[in-house]
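Subject: for your reference before the review

Hello V.,

The reviewers asked for a structural picture of the protein, and I figured it would be easier to keep everything in one thread rather than splitting it across files. Below is the amino acid sequence we used in the manuscript, unchanged from the supplementary table.
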Amino acid sequence: MTRKLYSPFVLMLVGLSASFAQVNNQTSVYLRPGTNVHVLGAFNNSTAGSVFTMDNQSLLYVGGDMNNNGTFTMENDASLLRGDVTADAGSGTFYVKRQGTSSLAYNYWGTPVAASGSVPGNPSYRYDEALSTQDPNDDNNPNPDPGWFAYNGNMTPGDGYAGWSANLATFTDNEVNNGNVNAPMNISVFNPTPAPGVPGTPFNLVGNPYPSGLNCSQLVLDNTGIHGSLYFWVDDATQGSGYSAADYAIWNFFGTIPNTANANGSPVPNGIIKTGQGFLVRNGNTGPSQLQFRNGQRVANTASNAFFRANAEESKLWLSLNGTGVEFFSQILVGATEDATSGEDLLYDAIRLPANTGVSLSATQGQSNYGILAFPPPALEEVIPLNVFVGENGTFTFRADEMIGFQDLDVYLNDIDPIHGSSTLLGEGTEVNINLTSGHYENRFYLNFTPNLTVGVDENEDIRIRTWAFGDQLTVQLSQNLEGNSTLELLDMSGRLVLSESKLNFSNNKASVSVKGISVGNYIVRVVNKDQVLSQKVFMR
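And here is what came back from the structure prediction:
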């Protein structure tokens, strides 16, 4: 039996869900915001006078074939979901809308219709990954990236484009994209220290090809070999004058970070790629030659994605560096999860793209800088060097914006500057102010993660010791005070004494000594007191 929508008036479904076996519309139908309509079989907008309008945040699911001979309009954030094996036909017109930025700025676009005409905005561009370089200077600050080309032709479904525009864009055609869409992918080896002028980048610009949202997680899982971090361009409110690759917000399975502090009111990525949205994905060294988009990846534009997996063994720190102005903000996400390894993880580690002109903060592992970095829960300690860039002289603030799951870990922000150095135990909201001159700082700031000394320890239990080393400093922290004088001894693994510091000066149960000239390797730290001897293994970097 076919259920038909016949009406002499506009049908209004207010905050309701409705299900139909099939739909044959010969009139005007309007879905109010928040309305969900499920059609298990075919959908037929059957005559030239048939009008079907989906308002903001409404959803239509069509499990069967779809035929449009009339007018089908999707307002911003409306979603059309489809069954896995479905076909389209008809001579009518689709209008699919996407809200761009609120003022003139660049947007990344992908087309949800088969033949969209030109890229929204003027000027507009396409991107050739094979001609682009990985040189961080090739981001228009100061040099243009050779991969960008002026372009105003038809958009290919699955490819990504850039356009200078504002407000609402409308994609119009007699066919919306459905089913399998494959976007070509460039394969290049990522180079953390690229030579200038060498063409080829693994960061591919692609676009959501559907009139619905895409689930980030499912897209990554369906494309074996790509890195699981997706990069979303959001202009930093300088409207292009401060163009930089650091304007990308990042999503992956460990979490998300924004590009700037509430730039243009833009939200942090929530795991959903919206209709008409272009984005960057990093291909693996032996990754796929095509990125596969599938109906099974489609979700509602307004759906949230719980990528924060329930895992008691995860600890996450969102740390930012802040100056004055929207372009003087950079945030990283660093933490521990049992799913991570000590190397680069496809799903949990996100490379930081080239530095902003205001400030840039990244976590360093090996030769690479990361916006998101995960590591296994440390048995003793994990020291994460920070790479800091500031574009002008001034006072800058490190801020622990958010901390999750630090019941069993302490994390310190350490500044090893010989004059202004400090070590600060971080809690959510902790701020550390520092005066910096413009330039790069690669060996000054560190994060130190260590098992918490106080969890599960009675005041009557033995004193516990924690040690860590970075730069030329060795730090010792105790769970409670030691009475009387103490001596620090450093022994190599053969038992040979390589350093002795008498009358160790503890302040707030913590003391530091110089280990300048000590070779890299494993050592034993001993604190000798009249009452007891405390010891722990430490690794000198």
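For the response letter, the relevant points are probably these. Helices lie at 216-221. The mean pLDDT is 86.

Happy to draft the paragraph if you're swamped.

O.
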